[in-house]
From TrEMBL:
PANTHER family: PTHR47441, RELEASE FACTOR GLUTAMINE METHYLTRANSFERASE (PTHR47441:SF3). Belongs to the protein N5-glutamine methyltransferase family. PrmC subfamily. The gene is prmC. S-adenosyl-L-methionine binds at G142, T143, G144, S145, G146, E165, W194, N211. Substrate binds at N211, P212, P213, Y214. Methylates the class 1 translation termination release factors RF1/PrfA and RF2/PrfB on the glutamine residue of the universally conserved GGQ motif. GO terms for biological process: methylation. It comes from the Bacteria. CDD domains: AdoMet_MTases. It comes from Cyanobium gracile UHCC 0139. Residues 136-214 form the Methyltransferase small domain. This is Release factor glutamine methyltransferase.
Length: 308
């Protein structure tokens, strides 16, 4: 993994506002795209880095004479774009934020960038638990940026949450993000691997979610450079068959979940059968497969036997 170079400090949005016409911005955009790169990525940078929403950008095609305001000068945005094109650094790291559900989560090198499909884990957790008794305690194993923990805490305001993470960098980012949303008193951060830091609460967890590393080690080299060279391999590498972390999580679920507790996992799109077999072998009930945004089996669920 390539260590990222320091990211130059950018003006805080709102501290320097640039006013220009739509035609000037569209010409700037055409010039950069003529040199390569995806239009969707550049438009994302204009949105998150410049404060120009996609709908505003689209309206400029019909009203190029309109005046617009950017949070950052075009020169600063162009420097970020060129750096992204040159080194494949994720735009989310360069801007320092990632849109996820209804949040704009701060992210930084050393922390996995939240994916859109992982948003479904929250919806599945809430859907599958209905009409079960209220959730008292839940946990997020391998919390990364804290995205799942934040979404669950906001959706389950009367519950107590635990967010487990082995990476010191990710743990610090998750802590800062929980504080940003004033959730640090409702979600306890725990350093360590999977179930071990939760031992005092084994047998009491009504819901556990996890988006663990699940990419087979041999396929990491074939990932896009924006992922392979910059995102933490600790959060990507799932071992020889991609199931190392999933095996550890499933193996401890029967002991850690409360009776009737739900385990919900994200996995690789071709691992549904293997994960379901692990869940059954561990003594969990009603293993289920759930589709991602493209209709592929991406999530697995199972329950500890018994009732609360």
């Amino acid at each position: 993994m390539v260590s990222p170079a320091p990211i130059p400090a950018l003006p805080v949005p709102g501290s320097e506002v640039l006013t220009l016409t739509g035609s000037e911005l569209l010409e700037w955009r055409r010039r950069l795209l003529a040199q390569g790169g995806a239009a969707a990525d550049l438009d994302w940078l204009l949105d998150l880095g410049g404060g120009l929403r996609w709908s505003q950008l689209q309206s400029l095609w019909c009203h190029p004479q309109a005046t617009i305001r950017l949070d950052r000068p075009l020169e600063a945005l162009e420097a970020l774009w060129r750096r992204h094109r040159r080194s494949h650094e994720p735009l989310q790291y360069l801007v320092g934020r990632c849109p996820w559900r209804d949040l704009e989560l701060p992210v930084a090198p050393g922390v996995l960038i939240p994916r859109q499909e992982t948003e479904l884990l929250v919806d599945l957790a809430l859907q599958l638990r209905r009409p079960a008794p209220p959730i008292s305690r839940w946990a997020d194993l391998g919390t990364g940026s804290g995205c799942l923990a934040i979404a669950l805490a906001r959706s389950l305001p009367t519950s107590r949450g635990f967010a487990v993470e082995a990476s010191a960098e990710a743990l610090a980012q998750a802590g800062a993000n929980l504080t940003r949303w004033d959730l640090e008193r409702r979600v306890t951060l725990l350093a360590g691997d999977w179930w071990q830091p939760l031992q005092p609460w084994w047998g009491q967890l009504d819901l556990v979610v996890s988006n663990p590393p699940y990419i087979p080690s041999a396929t990491l080299a074939g990932l896009e450079p924006v992922v392979r060279d910059h995102e933490p391999h600790l959060a990507l590498d799932g071992g020889p068959d991609g199931l190392t972390a999933l095996r550890s999580i499933v193996a401890g679920a029967l002991q850690a979940l409360a009776p009737g507790g739900l385990l919900l996992l994200e996995h690789h799109h071709d691992q549904s059968g293997a994960v379901a077999a692990l869940l059954r072998a561990a003594g969990l009930e009603r293993p289920g497969v759930h589709a991602d945004l493209e209709g592929r089996g991406r999530f697995a669920s199972a329950w500890r036997p018994g009732a609360r």
